[in-house]
Amino acid sequence: MRRGWKSPIQLLSLLVSTRTSLGFVINRQIATVNNINNKRRMSSEVMENESFGETNQSWRSLLEVSMAKTRKIRGSNYVQIATINKNNEPRCRTVVFRGFINNLPENHPMTLNGGYCDEKPCVMKMCTDLRSKKVEEVSYQSISEMVWWFPKTSEQYRVRGPLLLVGDDNDDRDLQIARKELWGNIGDPSRESFLDTPTKIGSGGRDDEGKVIPPPENFLLMLLDPTHVDYLRLTGGQYRQIDQRRQHGDDDDDDTSQSYWSSKEVAP
Ligand SMILES: Cc1cc2nc3c(=O)[nH]c(=O)nc-3n(C[C@H](O)[C@H](O)[C@H](O)COP(=O)(O)O)c2cc1C
After folding, report:
1. Which domains, ranges and CATH numbers included, belong to the chain?
2. Which of 73, 78, 81, 95 to mutate for ligand 1's pocket (most ligand atoms within 8 Å of CB)?
């Protein structure tokens, strides 16, 4: 074949490679535009490392991403929660974060009182034992602070708000349902840790037929109702943001009692 002439096969592969690379460039440009448009909406998506930087998302949306990125890491749902004892001394301990409470009706006081942020439930679920010290401490001072550190993404959340303990004497039907649901979901070893040896029926808090027994009196649903969140990210240049739950009327004379979240960047 003469020099400079291309065989049909060579021509075909040239056409394909030109189309592919052109398509790649166009696709990249579309992706860039989409990235800009989507930046505000990335709450439930996993952000890539290069998208770290300034943020205009609420703490709740940021947390959604942090949790999604670390879900598979063992211990990523261990948080530290601090309370104040009757001598005004802090006490801090590790507990397991067990998700957000998401089955409360729209007219439940917790829902009306700011139980949602960015349309996502934000009251945090944990459980504890009635006999633990934190129970007594919460009766002196209900405000607690949780610290959640995400080593993989170098992010820290400090979530502050009242702790609500729900035992079997609580007559809020919706919270009682949430308590029973959590008892059923915590797994056999955790359930067993709430049972005294004489009352252990079978293993894992199950009866002879393998059915989960009702929660014992000392099993408490522990809810953190956030009002203030301090978010710090060390990756890609330090960034810190404070989110606060406010009532309409905090800043003006409007006395409608609906809550909303406000967010501001702080330095350092
Ligand atoms: C990894 C880990 C997970 C824990 N999870 C819980 C929990 O979910 N709930 C709880 O009450 N205590 C949990 N504990 C035990 C607490 O850290 C603490 O020892 C216990 O709650 C008693 O604390 P208090 O007497 O100060 O209330 C956990 C401990 C560790 C190390």
Report:
1. 57-248 (2.30.110.10)
2. 95
